[in-house]
Amino acid sequence: MNDEFPKLPSNCTSMLCKHLSKEMFENLKSKQTANGFTLKNAINSGVENIDSGIGVYAGDEESYTLFSPLFNPIIQEYHDFGKNDTHQSNMNPDNLYAPNPDPDKKYIVSTRIRVGRNINNIPLGSAISKKQRNKVEASIAKALKTLKGELKGDYYPLFGMSKEVQNKLIKDHFLFKEGDRFLAAAGLNRDWPEGRGIYHNHNKTFLVWINEEDQLRIISMQKGGNIKEVFTRLVTAIKSIATKIDFSYSNHLGYITSCPTNLGTAMRASVHIALPKLSKNKLMFHTITKKHHLQIRGVHGEHSKTEGVIYDISNQRRLGVTEIVCVQDMYNGVVELIEAEKKLSK
Ligand code: ADP
Ligand code: CIR
Fold it and tell me: Domain containing 252: what range?
């Protein structure tokens, strides 16, 4: 590998730039995991994309321990989760308090909750081989074929899909975009589009992405603000899929994912919400989102600018909190955002 400390400009604000020291680099640069994943591989996305928020990816579960001097402070800062903390799961919908905060459909356009999952003892997408990726695709597609009832659907490989169909699925918020430069620099787009695809039920309320950033992204979504219905559908699906596929999980880090921001629950619960007045009052908007540990994204997902007055509001923390807390954070915050929007509209 290139032994030089990477050129990171002084105005770089990513967590990589903040936490990677020259001394740390020297100590870690010659190490590699059993899958051959190195520090250089882990940091390449943030080195090539100086505007990254985070800038690092893992190639396997071992990356998180072998390169822990770099990953631990990032995990600590993003999730407020220390190296001796343990993760806990709770997916019982009965524990979620979430009556529809917008039954008249004035603010919430749609609700979506997803989790990331990867298969035990197989490298993550940054370190996986083409053969392994294709095998992962086949085994997930086979498992999904057994789903019943509302979850029953079909698998559509990206390989051979027309651009027209692909672009419509992306535009309608169902499919991952193509050519993400952060993922490309992490090695996650190798052999594209082979091995990737999307499964969905007839009305596209239940979807699974195969071999994007994680081997599985299990998604439940629908129009409006019935958050509990979306969560309940997702939990049913996760439990069914888990009877066929052995997910990679550690007691410390929860579900193992490519990006350290997704560890733990790997859950992002979001609404697309119209906030025409509040979004002009940045101080109030950000005070509420900060209080409830929420992230603001654009309507076309991560790194997208928003269009008009609709924002993607989701839970930020995912590790060291249960799935119920992730959704509850989002719900409580959305209730307060709607109250603030109503007040400003008077
Ligand atoms: P992820 O949620 O998987 O981390 P993105 O932020 O890129 O990734 O979002 C993926 C897609 O999901 C994007 O097309 C985005 O617009 C869509 N999406 C996210 N939240 C919602 C929502 N509440 N309603 C409809 N679409 C959504
Ligand atoms: C970045 O560093 O900006 C990308 N690699 C994406 C990081 C994940 N972002 C997030 O907030 N969940």
Answer: 106-345
Same domain, residue pair 176 and 312? yes
Q: Residue 326's CB: how many other CB atoms inside 10 A?
A: 27
Residues 190 and 294 both lie in one domain: yes
**Of these residues, 137, 213, 323, 341, which one is catalytic?**
213
Number of domains in the chain: 2
Q: For residue 207, give the CATH number of its domain.
A: 3.30.590.10
**Ligand 1 neighbour 318 (Cβ under 6 A):** no
112 CB under 6 A from ligand 1?
A: yes
Q: Which residues approach ligand 2 with their CB closer than 6 A? A: 45, 52-55, 182, 259, 261, 302
Whether 158 is in a domain gets the answer yes
Tell me whether residue 184 is in a domain: yes
Side-by-side strand order, sheet with 294-297: 153-157, 197-201, 206-210, 216-223, 108-117, 267-274, 310-315, 294-297
User: How many CA within 13 A on the CB side of residue 93?
Assistant: 15
- Measuring from atom 6 of ligand 1, which residue has the nearest CA? 301
In a domain, 333, yes or no: yes
Q: Examine the pLDDT at 2 and tell me if it is beyond 80.
A: no
Residue 1 maps to a domain: no
Residue located via tokens 């994943």 = 37
Q: Examine the residue annotation and report whether 268 is marked as an active-site residue of this protein.
A: yes
Whole-model pTM: value is: 0.97
Q: Known catalytic residue: 326?
A: no
Query: How much distance in Å is there from the Cα of 11 to the middle of ligand 2?
Result: 18
Mean of all residue pLDDT scores within the chain: 97
Identify the pLDDT of residue 119.
98
